[in-house]
Write a structure and sequence with these properties.
Helix content of chain A: over 70%
Shape of chain B: globular
Radius of gyration of chain B: 26 Å
Oligomer: heterodimer
CATH architecture of one domain in chain B: Roll
Number of helices of chain A: 14
Structural class of chain A: mainly alpha
Number of domains of chain A: 2
CATH topology of one domain in chain B: Dipeptide-binding Protein, domain 3
Largest interface: A-B, 72 and 69 residues
Strand content of chain B: 15-25%
CATH superfamily of the largest domain in chain A: MetI-like
Strand order of the largest sheet of chain B: 16-20-15-19-17-18
Number of strands of chain A: 0
Number of strands of chain B: 23
CATH class of the largest domain in chain A: Mainly Alpha
Chain lengths: 317, 605
């Protein structure tokens, strides 16, 4: 019951956050974002035609009226039709978000799981050659551009110049086998890069935990390394790890991974969002920004509940 | 089963199902496609259309996809070069009155739209003349967000007035009528020799009113046409069509299509002679803007079968640049074709800027002209070509491109010849020096290549002692923002490319016609009364030596007035797999070529 009350309070408390995010982003969209008018005009447009298109796009309406409409759309989850394709925004998102989710989830899970594992190993062997090797690998993963990693993996694993094992591009998924074929190379590329950042971050957290008195005491009692790492170090490092993972989720769900989707020809939400940004497709942008803000509020709530689950000292007030 | 394994299986199933989602239709299509009984052609484009509504088919990508789902009255011949128009849904070329003001076009009978729930009983009805009238009227209805009205604006009697009166589709337009179910009549305000070309554009594709009214703006992603293919799925990565089984049976006469055995025999197109297109069961057009991914997919062997080769691969595929010859290993695996694009790239001076263009003070205006001429002389086209176009571009003087019949191969090349000394002398003779020379802002969209264009331009200017800090770059995040500033005449120097809408030099000459000034396409804001008079005179003339002569005089005026640094037409190289029978073209023929594509042995490899 306490958790439910807390959740309701937290969700209500999140409303100003959503309003703030949507307001600022809407100001940016309206006053600093791309103007679709000139892309929608034919050649040799007259000033009258420019005015007609602006009216059709709703650019001539007062800012506050447009913002109020945006809030109504967010509340009803009906964002209207895309200014570019004319397709319902909800249809575009409901088609592309599951694809992005299916695409990035394995890499997200593996990147974090392996990151934690490697961080534990590196921290345990701090300053030894194993630690240095893992950190060296991490730096490599962080230093190489994601774009280069994608192209290299694509050539190495998918193209006729390499092993030619997987499709270069596409998303014809209707069986688990297809899914594995299409998701493997993107996953490997994203894990390669994510491992660098994740491992370094998690190692820093774990190393700090390892210097605590209770760990020294546990060691003095002769606790086995596995138990020490899992029970006394990892569990106590859970809060920053959970924070990092949880706050990545909204972006993973809504933004997808533009580079991966573009290079592997996958029709996910990252590409939809990128196209909307470059073309100034405000209905799509409004939906993506609004949903991301709402997801962040939900994430904040879930994160707090998880804190409580891993650390009983945390109280939900 | 251990709980962890059960969880893993559950997550995998969820992700697989999530990934299938709305793609189910396309998935099924692709499954069939791998069957040896199905003929599948996987094409590619280096960009994606934002919509497939003909009313908004404003770029090469949208035009190409629209032309495969919809019918147009005319199309361009598959094989003829220079390009020629031929009837498509029209029953023949138009009957034109002696004064050139009345066009009468009969359309083929018994042609049907694809089946769609928008029709009564879900069965596609016959395409009639009224459908064409409706489709053109849509371009004059602001609610449809049209982009192609410029083709017919001020040309057809009563059409502009119809729009001004509120675009009521039940109201007739005097100059655009269906005389009966299969006859269309145009009444023109003045002769319009390019009219037939406009009827081969995606903008003029024929749509059924009931589908537009049923789907509203969603019509842009739910095409209902009578073209050779019907769309079965469409997203940001690709469009998938299947053969329209209702498409009319019209055997191809390759000789009438302009077949030239000397240059085209290697394509194998003789195999389609006297057969009715489309020949493939399924067509996929993949939108791949990333060059590396497009190339990897093409060379893989079992993915895309055709591509326009990215510039950075030219070195890997060519044994010789002049003449253009493929390396043996490339010729062995692929068909290759190269052609000079129909459009061109150029850089305009905006004459609205008193520092570089027109000026109230005649003396200053004379000096400004000298400044522009000096900049043109300093522009090193050979280096531009070598640096960015692998030395394969065709550099030519003026604005009449090599792709049109009015091109003058004997025109003096002074305006494209590097002359540093001449440029410096011109500056000195007209009192320009480092202190008084004006700052010029070079506008372009954001991007690495665009930045390199600018840096090279600044380098050229440095050679005539133009201070580097006075050649300034202004980059725009999006093309729309760039167009916004050019449309509002806010940029003194504008680098851009132009793709020809039809093979007539009028299409580029209008870029410098005074009344088309900003926000129109004359973003140089060139205003020359004599040029405008000649443009208006030639605009109503049919192709003739006299018209060509006028075009060339206008071209010379633009060169003499130093209004533009021009130009270069890029050479495009196309590769396609050996098992594909095709003569690809992304220029004027555009999407029309796909209906003629076939596969060797009649099966998908």
């Amino acid at each position: 019951m306490d958790v439910l009350k807390y959740a309701i309070r937290k969700l209500i408390g999140g409303i100003p956050l959503v309003l703030g995010v949507t307001f600022v982003s809407f100001v940016l969209m309206v006053y600093f974002g791309p103007d679709l008018t000139f892309e929608m005009l034919g050649k040799n447009a007259t000033p009258e035609q420019i005015a007609e298109v602006r009216k059709e796009l709703g650019y001539d309406r007062p800012f506050l009226a447009r913002y109020a409409e945006y809030l109504k759309e967010l509340a009803t989850l009906d964002f209207g039709l895309s200014d570019s394709s004319g397709e319902p925004v909800s249809a575009m998102l409901s088609r592309s978000i599951p694809i992005s989710l299916a695409l990035v989830t394995p890499g997200f899970i593996l990147g974090n799981l392996l990151g934690v594992l490697l961080a534990l190993v590196a921290a345990y062997h701090r300053s030894g050659w194993i630690d240095k090797a893992i950190m060296g690998f991490s730096v490599v993963g962080m230093s190489i551009s994601f774009l280069i990693v994608i192209i290299a993996f694509q050539i190495l694993l998918s193209s006729s110049y390499g092993l030619n094992l997987f499709p270069v591009r596409g998303w014809n998924v209707h069986s688990f086998y297809d899914y594995v074929m299409y998701v493997t190379v993107p996953t490997l590329a994203s894990v390669f890069v994510a491992l660098g950042y994740n491992t370094r971050f998690y190692r820093a957290v774990i190393v700090e935990e390892m210097t605590r008195d209770h760990v020294r005491t546990a060691r003095a009692f002769g606790i086995r390394p596995g138990k020490l790492l899992y029970k006394h170090i990892l569990k106590n490092s859970a809060i920053p790890i959970i924070t990092r993972i949880m706050f990545s989720i909204p972006l993973v769900i809504v933004s997808g991974s533009l580079l991966i989707e573009s290079y592997f020809g996958i029709p996910g939400v990252g590409k939809v969002t990128f196209d909307a940004i470059t073309s100034g497709d405000q209905p799509v942008l409004k939906a993506v920004v609004g949903l991301t803000a709402v997801l962040f509020v939900v994430t904040l709530l879930v994160t707090d509940i998880l804190y409580r689950a891993v650390d009983p000292r945390v109280s939900l007030k | 089963m251990p709980p962890s394994l059960r969880l893993l299986l559950l997550v995998s199933t969820f992700l697989t199902l999530a990934g299938c989602g709305e793609e189910q239709q396309a998935v099924a299509a692709s499954d069939d496609a791998v069957s040896p009984e199905i003929k599948l052609f996987r094409s590619s484009m280096d960009g994606a259309p934002s919509t497939i509504d003909p009313v908004q088919a404003s770029n090469v990508y949208a035009n190409a996809v629209v032309l495969n789902a919809y019918d147009t009255l005319y199309r361009f011949k598959y094989l003829a070069r220079p390009y020629e128009v031929t009837p498509n849904l029209a029953n023949g070329m138009p009957e034109i009155s002696a004064d050139g003001l009345v066009y009468r076009i009969r359309i083929k009978q018994g042609v049907h739209f694809i089946d769609d729930p928008a029709f009564e009983g879900g069965i596609g009805r016959e395409v009639v003349a009224e459908d064409f009238v409706y489709s053109i009227k849509r371009q004059f209805d602001t609610k449809q967000r049209p982009r192609g009205a410029w083709l017919w604006q001020g040309r057809i009697v009563g059409l502009d007035a119809w729009k001004d009166a509120g675009s009521n589709y039940d109201e007739p337009v005097e100059g655009l009528r269906a005389l009966d179910r299969h006859t269309i009549e145009f009444r023109l305000v003045k002769p319009y020799p390019q009219l037939v070309y406009t009827l081969a554009q995606g903008y003029a594709a024929i749509v059924p009113r009931e589908a537009v009214e049923t789907y509203g703006r969603e019509f842009g992603s739910r095409p209902v046409g009578s073209g050779p293919f019907k769309v079965i799925s469409y997203d940001s990565a690709r469009i998938v069509y299947e053969k329209n089984l209702k498409f009319r049976q019209e055997p191809v006469d390759i000789w009438a299509e302009g077949y030239d055995p000397d240059t085209q025999a290697h394509t194998g197109v003789e195999a389609i002679h006297e057969r009715s297109p489309p020949f493939i069961d399924r067509l996929e057009i993949n939108f791949i803007s990333e060059n590396a991914a497009r190339w990897n997919s093409f060379t893989k062997g079992n993915e895309i079968q055709y591509l326009s080769v990215p510039n950075e691969q030219y070195d890997n595929i060519l044994a010789s640049k002049d003449p253009i010859v493929a390396k043996p290993e490339i010729s062995e695996k692929y068909h290759m074709r190269h052609s000079v694009e129909s459009g061109f790239v150029f850089t305009s001076f905006n004459m609205d800027f008193p520092t570089i263009g027109y000026n109230d003070d005649p003396e200053q205006e004379r000096r400004n002209k000298a400044l522009r001429c000096a900049i043109i002389k300093a522009f090193d086209w050979a280096r531009r070509n070598e640096s960015f176009y692998f030395g394969l571009g065709r550099v030519f003087p003026g604005i009449i491109t090599p792709a049109v019949p009015e091109f003058d191969a004997d025109l003096s090349e002074d305006s494209i010849t590097l002359d540093i000394d001449g440029a410096k002398k011109l500056l000195a003779d007209n009192g320009w020096n480092e202190d008084n020379i004006p700052e010029i802002v070079y506008g372009t969209t954001a991007g690495v290549i665009q930045r390199m264009f600018f840096e090279q331009f600044r380098g050229f200017m440095k050679k005539i002692d133009y201070p580097s800090d006075k050649v300034v770059l202004k980059q725009y995040a999006t093309f729309g923002d760039f167009v916004k500033d050019t449309s509002n005449s806010r940029l003194p120097i504008i680098g851009k490319g132009w793709t020809l809408d039809y093979p007539d030099a009028e299409n580029t000459l209008q870029l410098f016609y005074g009344p088309n000034g900003s926000p129109g396409s004359n973003d140089a804001n060139y205003k020359n009364p004599e040029y405008d008079r000649l443009y208006e005179q030639s605009a109503v003339m049919l192709p003739s030596p006299e018209r060509t002569e006028i075009y060339r005089r206008m071209n010379q005026m633009v060169i003499d007035d130093c209004v533009v640094i021009s130009g270069l037409s890029r050479t495009r190289i196309y590769l396609w797999h050996k098992d594909v029978i095709a003569m690809p073209d992304r220029e004027i023929v555009s999407g029309f070529f796909l209906r003629f594509v076939d596969l060797v042995d009649g099966k998908n490899s």
